[in-house]
Amino acid sequence: MISVFFMLKVAHSPLYAHSLPEGHRFPMEKYSLLPEQLLYEGTLTQENFFIPDLLEEKWILNTHDAHYFQRLKNLELTRSEIRATGFPLSEGLVRREIQIASGSVQAAVFALEHGIGMNIAGGTHHAFTDRGEGFCLLNDIAITANFLLENQLSNRVLVVDLDVHQGNGTAQIFQHSTDVFTFSMHGAKNYPHRKEKSHLDISLPDGTADEEYLDKLNHNLSLVLDKFSPDFIIYQCGVDVLSSDQLGRLSLSQQGVKLRDDFVLSNARNRQIPIMCCMGGGYSKQIKVIIEAHAHVFRLAQELYS
């Protein structure tokens, strides 16, 4: 049952914005600016935020290959492996990834009691069982889903991935799972060029705008919710679907993103399915556009669950 005494809890890790060398921070600055904006406008207060502890390694190893994680911790990845992640490898970066995964786990546990939890970072859906790529080293979505299942906190987890890029790592991790359903709606011609197979992939042509996007989302997500009957949802709500995004190739407006988020959160609320939201990508040239788009989901959470 969703608590009527809801208070939004948001994982916030300052390491996310400051663990990278100069020249590698954009668009990482959004992880500091977004909470500042939400506090400034009064959507959230300081009581809404928590800084997650480091996650116990056993929960990481419940998803990721032990040899890969050991080499990652020891900074022993090869040059090609590091190049695939897009980040210069460092102890701070690895710590940050562990803390992000912990934030998603803690937000999910909070959602079980209160209906919704948020991670101001997360959505690292390009991390595979045994490797990282695309700015992702550890897959917080998969780690969270497996944590819920392993601890018998959930029986059927639905991953709703609406980042413009396919959640290829998440798809690979759960390719044989019957307890986790992966739903990815993404640009057909966008990264990754070699797609994995989610349980349901909706590939969109370049230039897809609000009406077509929302029609396909409404139809397909409703079918998945009815047929799979999840008891928990993990929502990757990347805003790189915006027409202004430098990497996106789709054409959603700010209103389209808000309607997208509203549809997902309203379905979770109305069906009384706990939901954890993680932010995913956003690469518009103007940082204020990214912040505004990400802020939608937090405002909606307060409107729907307070």
Structure explained in plain terms:
The protein has 306 residues and is α/β, with parallel strands linked by helices. It has a single domain, classed as Arginase, Chain A. It is 43% helix and 11% strand. The protein contains eleven helices and eight strands. The chain has an eight-stranded parallel beta sheet, with helices on both faces. Strand 7, helix 10 and strand 8 form a beta-alpha-beta unit. Helix 9 packs parallel to helix 10 and helix 10 packs parallel to helix 11. The longest helix has 24 residues. The two termini are 14 Å apart. The N terminus is likely disordered. It comes from Algoriphagus boritolerans DSM 17298 = JCM 18970. Pfam families: Hist_deacetyl. GO terms for molecular function: histone deacetylase activity; hydrolase activity. One of its GO terms (biological process) is epigenetic regulation of gene expression. InterPro entries: HDAC_classIV (IPR044150), HDACs (IPR000286), His_deacetylse_dom (IPR023801), His_deacetylse_dom_sf (IPR037138), Ureohydrolase_dom_sf (IPR023696).
Summarize the structure.
The chain has 306 residues and is an alpha/beta fold.
Key terms for this structure?
306 residues; alpha/beta; Arginase, Chain A; eight-stranded parallel sheet; 11% strand; disordered N terminus; hydrolase activity
